[in-house]
Amino acid sequence: MGKDSILLQPIKVGHVTLKNRIMFPPQTTGYEERDGSIGERSFNFYKRIAQGGSSFVTIGDVAPVMTASPTPKLCDDRQIPTYKKLADMMHEYDCKVALQLFHPEYDVAGVGRLIMGSRKAMMEAEALKAQGDMEGFAAKMAESKKIGNDAYAKLHHDMHYFVSEATVEQLEAIKKAILDAAVRAEAAGIDAIEVHGDRLLGSLCSTILNHRTDNYGGSLENRCRYALEIVRGIKEVAPKLLVEYKLPFITKNPDGSDRGKGGLHEEDGIKFAKMLEEAGVDMIQVAQANHTGNMADTIPPMGTREYSWMAPISRRVKETVSIPVAVVGKVVSVENGEKLIENGDCDIVCYGRSLLCDPDIPNKVATDEPIRECLQCNKGCVDAISQRRYISCILNAENGDEGTIFIKPADAKKHVVIVGAGVAGLEAARVAGLRGHDVDVYEKEDKIGGQIHIASVPPRKSEILRAVEYYEKVLPRMNNVKVHLGTPVTKEIMNAADAVIIAVGAHNLHIPLEGADSKNVVSSWDILDCKVKGEGHCVVIGGGLVGAETAEYLANHGCKVSIIEMMDKIAKEESSTVLPTMMQDFAMHGVAQYINTKVISISNDGKCVKAFNTAENKEVMIECDMVVMAAGSVKNKFDVEGVNVPVYYAGDCSGERTAGIAEAIRSGYKAGNEI
Questions:
Q1: Fewer CB within 10 Å: N-end or C-end of the chain?
Q2: Whether residue 285 sits in one domain with residue 168
Q3: What pTM, to 2 d.p., does this model score?
């Protein structure tokens, strides 16, 4: 690291020189305005990335038509000014900006007509209701609902339908819309267009999704024809723009099956890379092919894929073409990125989720400051995309609200005492220290991190420890922050301060059931903290996130496992990208899942659980060797009687309900920023 890092070396892309080799790749953010233009939230987010030192930022999923998709749009000249404002701002920080132009894999116009038809039928229904015609009202509402369902089905059908059935006239209209958007981008002062090689174009390139028999189907040349026409068209109508191409590859799962549908298999992809260079593409971004039905395939969560897993393919692309090659795919650390360039795997490194977590990575590389590294948890970013919410990062309290949430210098220096060195207390210490306060953190245990150490134990979860490792690096560098380990706080210490932040966490909830006091009834926290070893058949009471993770841990350590959950789903709070892997693991280890089931009692010896299935209205008896309580947690109480200075709370102990790491970080940030 330092100013000599290979990541900070400039590189020429086409006629433009990038100041370094760190790129923010395209992501769906949800920050744009309803009409798809760049609003304040988008503007502030990208400004923060530019301020952090990235040389190249790509705005993800910019549609050249009005779609139902919650993405940015550049389909009207009236949208140009907001993009010009964005470009001008990015250039103030010597950061180049690209728009990733794409068209969905569905019939946008057809979906639009159906949506309008549904609305028309609904309005007609309301008119009939006003006239007292309830029979006509019901019929029209049924019609509206059917049309709406047809629109939804058309929006979400398998991609090959539109790809294979779109007429040449439709493809020509889409091409014109993309080229028109490129012209608007050039007028706005945008630097580059990234052609989205996934979505419609990737589907056309794919042997899996493309079943056409015309000039756009069959051979590699035919399947890639449309993408090349798009590239050449952009070069012609907007010659000042760089053209980047996102090149998606269909890779292999461990069992040898295809991973991804839209895109190309490796050998075809390598050939296509050369075609793209010959067509005038200035840079290629190598990525995993999409359309798998599981976003974990393209954006893998922690513990499911190796670091830099696309590097072997990007190396082959780089060896094939003479233009710069960028790569994305679980690049977390600076060392990781440096190695990719040094090994000849790529020329430019895409830090996606990592820049959400710490937008200052480029600047920190130059100054050797500690970087807050992404956990790859997918909880704030990928899950948000799936649920049509704006993205955020669980470790970065400012992410998504950069215009309103930032660290404010203190009006006057204070002495702040923080009780507890879990992530909430540590974040409060960091923020209060950056504001200029003198901070003392007291932790009765001999290490920092609190419950994170327990959370890191289940399968695939070890990467969560990076959250603690960050504070281990950054806090010792802050001369005004001291951490006292193995040191319980006293009221004298607290009263000698100007303010106190209580961040003492929570503990496992022990349900007061008959038989719960048996020696064979233990807590999930004790299991994960290795205080108790699971043996034989373990019944886990509670199928929330902690219960599911405990069950998976026990199953992987040779136990027979059953989970009992009152709700209708196990691990409801788990990331949509993690859950399929967890369920596969459950199936492989024969984990029994009792949903819609309420525990009534436990036998006195802890060897049998009596429950009732509310859905099937029947009693359930499960014989076992051990019962594990995983029904949630409850905040730890801390005696502040006699403390005569202002007291603030952060983390799990701050509310009636305990929460996860995101809420801990945000409450710690808020507490540290308020004092």
A1: N
A2: yes
A3: 0.91
